[in-house]
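Workshop exercise sheet. Pairs work together: one partner reads the sequence aloud, the other fills in the structure field after running the prediction. Swap roles for the next sheet.
Pair: D.N. / O.F.
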Amino acid sequence: MNSLQQKVQTLIDVRLLQTEPQHFAAVAQWHHQECERQGLTSTLPLRQQRLLLHVQQDHIPKTFIAMREGHLLGCVSLVNYTYRSSERMPKVSSPSPVWLTNLFVLSHLREQGIGNTLIDAAKNYATELGLTELWLSATDFTDYYQKRGWEIVRRTRLGGRQVNVMRVGL
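Structure field:
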């Protein structure tokens, strides 16, 4: 990590979205835009409905937001779901695996350590819950995750797209 990344990380405040409800609309919009970018069917009302679960419950799903001086920089979520075609998915040690999803950083702020800070916060939260692993599916940025210790467990198709199913131990 270079000195700029260290400086940026020290200025970043990561919080649960539920503690900063004024950022709900922006995060829902980001989720919607990323779904569309990946070719997934999405509507903003659907993203808002699903994101509500992240702020109304005391357990997963949860969304973390990164802020600096009150400005929203990015987000990441932890969700608990299984794919409908579970026979094609790898066996996981938990009957209800937790997935890292919706990692987003504003494009002009990327490559400054904000994504790493968000992922670390999510991993720390998962560890506090007693989890021993996290999962993710990546169509893009597989190298990014591999450099951070995630391993490709399986390549499969989901929603008509080729994805890498990845895992990291906690």
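Discussion prompt: The chain has a mean pLDDT of 88. What would you look at next?
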